[in-house]
Amino acid sequence: MYSLRQTLPDTPLDIVGDVHGEWQALESLLHYLGYRENGSHPQGRRLVFVGDLCDRGQNSPAILEWFKSAHDAGWAYMVLGNHELNLLVHDAKDGSGWYFAERRQKDQKYSPWHVQAEGGKAALEGWLSQQPLLLERADLRIVHAAWLPESMAQIEQAEGSLLERYRYFDKFLLKHIQSASWYDDYLREQEILADMLENPHASPPMMPASAEYDLARSRLNPIRALSCGVEKISDKPFFAGGRWRATERFAWWNDYVEPTPIVIGHYWRNWYPKKVAKNESAHLMPPQGNAWHGARKNVFCVDFSVGARWRDRQSGTPPHQSSFRLAALRFPEQVLMFDNGDMAATVR
């Protein structure tokens, strides 16, 4: 029986942000954190990953294989991110050319990458489908994108495996979408704008029906809501995650008033304020990269955009000079460690 919640061990933790296939960055971060090659730590610390281990980077297969070994030995834990869920439901999104052949031509900007062997896919998907969406203990909660109690209750009330529950909610979502007054307009927008939607240099017009579609997708499947976050309609289209979008992320943490701290990934935080990305995520986070946020200043996003290291490879920027970082939040110390060896205390 699938359980969306699992319990964190009562040990000091190192909570690692979205890795996105960047094996070299992960190896470097683990070195500075003091971990052995097998994922164990001489002081008994444990690793926790906030999801999105795969896609965009050069070696997603190596990261998933290493993590599975460390997890099965009891040294590492994870929550599923939206990129793992895309893999499980065979939704071939931007950056997944290492896994889905149909993405390889479109994803050439991320290459070269190591391709997942066909013979290993079934076992990988079976194992990933057992991983939780939530990790928690009395003093800490971890989810990839959004802590939403109503969505959690919906998932817990459903029956079956993770994928069976996902498909159950998607069936309800599809029925809602196809009966909506804007559905025909959505199909028309997608057909007319097909050549523009993944072109960052294009500038599509307003997409009201596509906005309604994305809004429904973000809110009506509770599994997707936890792993992608809920959204709201944006004032104008913007390019992010490999496509033009008509909805933007919503800062749910401004409504979170419970005392237990939450650590998340997903939101592509920036360490240097001067490097703020030109998309909506930049407006969700405090300008200080080491600041907690939310109504009680007890939510922390540990994703520092290492998934954009492919840009460094295109420009010839070496990893130690990159503005895109892989980070771990040491807990309960509340100190950040980066893959270049830098450390920083967090602040509330």
From TrEMBL:
InterPro entries from the entry? Ap4A_hydrolase (IPR050126), Calcineurin-like_PHP (IPR004843), Metallo-depent_PP-like (IPR029052)
| One Gene Ontology cellular component | cytoplasm
The enzyme's main class, written as a single word, is hydrolase
Domain Calcineurin-like phosphoesterase positions: 13-106
Keywords, A to Z, come to: Hydrolase
- EC number(s) of the enzyme? 3.6.1.17
- Where does the record place a coiled coil? none
Q: Which GO terms describe its molecular function?
A: bis(5'-nucleosyl)-tetraphosphatase (asymmetrical) activity; phosphatase activity
**Designated name of the protein:** Bis(5'-nucleosyl)-tetraphosphatase prpE [asymmetrical]
Species source reads: Suttonella indologenes
Q: Which gene encodes it?
A: prpE
